[in-house]
Write a structure and sequence with these properties.
With 257 residues, this protein is mostly helical. Helix content is 50%, strand content 2%.
């Protein structure tokens, strides 16, 4: 494996990030789901639910995410705000890996609670943002999200950075919401948070590539690894460090780097 100087590494990753952050990326990625909507709340909810089930086979993720939107009548916000327990039968049979109809029913109730109390999801995260990153906000989000009576098993579907989780799926959701939409992939509908605060959605693909490039030494893809990777990516671009998620993911998935 070629050893890069810092300047060479930045140039290489900048080039790969620009190559993959193109509208064609959407064709095979779960981010296509929120692109179906224009209303802010619809984009938020579809993004959050899609990110929640974004693990495993990508084709299966897309199939089930589209199915989920159909269950919600292709109007996620309207469905959430008008939801009653009588609607729960609509979820019967929905499953993606370990996320099932019971989990979905609670997620819809919890989203209704959040929107009723805070107005939108951005307003909640705005309260708990820090200058460095959004991991504390994610921790408090999970606490608020599970403040209603709920099945304990459902808690596993939102990770907690304070418990040393890399929180890949919710960090991906935050990327979708916060990063500039000019390249045509991320949605960029939240203006009260900054791309400088984002953390890389660390998974097996981005983690393996990061290690090969010398950006990551920790072997586990956990919260400590995320801090290490974030520090390295911020040194390459402090203003938009998570653009490199495109480079790391693309190199791993499409180029088998």
């Amino acid at each position: 494996m070629k050893t890069f100087s810092t300047t060479e590494l930045k140039g290489f990753l900048d080039e790969k990030a620009a190559f993959y952050e193109q509208p064609k990326f959407i064709e095979t990625d779960p981010v296509q789901i929120p692109h179906l909507f224009s209303q802010k709340e619809d984009v938020e909810i579809s993004s959050f639910l899609t990110a929640t089930i974004s693990w495993g086979n990508r084709k299966s993720i897309l199939t089930n995410a589209h199915k989920l939107m159909r269950i919600l009548g292709n109007s996620p916000y309207d469905f959430v705000m008008n939801y009653t327990d009588n609607d729960q039968d609509r979820f019967e049979g929905f499953v993606h890996r370990t996320f099932n109809s019971t989990d979905l029913a609670y997620f819809i109730r919890a989203l209704k609670h959040l929107y009723t109390k805070y107005g939108d999801m951005e307003s909640f995260f705005k309260q708990f943002r820090s200058e460095e990153n959004l991991q504390n906000g994610i921790h408090h989000f999970k606490k608020e999200f599970f403040s209603l009576p709920h099945p304990i098993r459902t808690e596993k579907h939102i990770s907690d950075p304070h418990k040393n989780s890399a929180a890949k799926r919710i960090n991906m959701f935050m990327r979708w919401m916060v990063r500039d939409p000019k390249a045509g992939v991320d949605l960029g509908i939240w203006n009260n948070l900054s791309p400088t605060q984002l953390s890389c959605p660390l998974d097996v693909h981005s983690g393996n590539v990061a290690r090969k490039l010398g950006l990551l030494t920790r072997k586990q893809n956990d919260g400590k690894a995320l801090i290490e990777l974030d520090t390295q990516l911020r040194s390459l671009d402090p203003y938009d460090p998570v653009k490199y998620d495109y480079a790391l993911f693309g190199l791993g998935v499409f180029e088998k780097f």
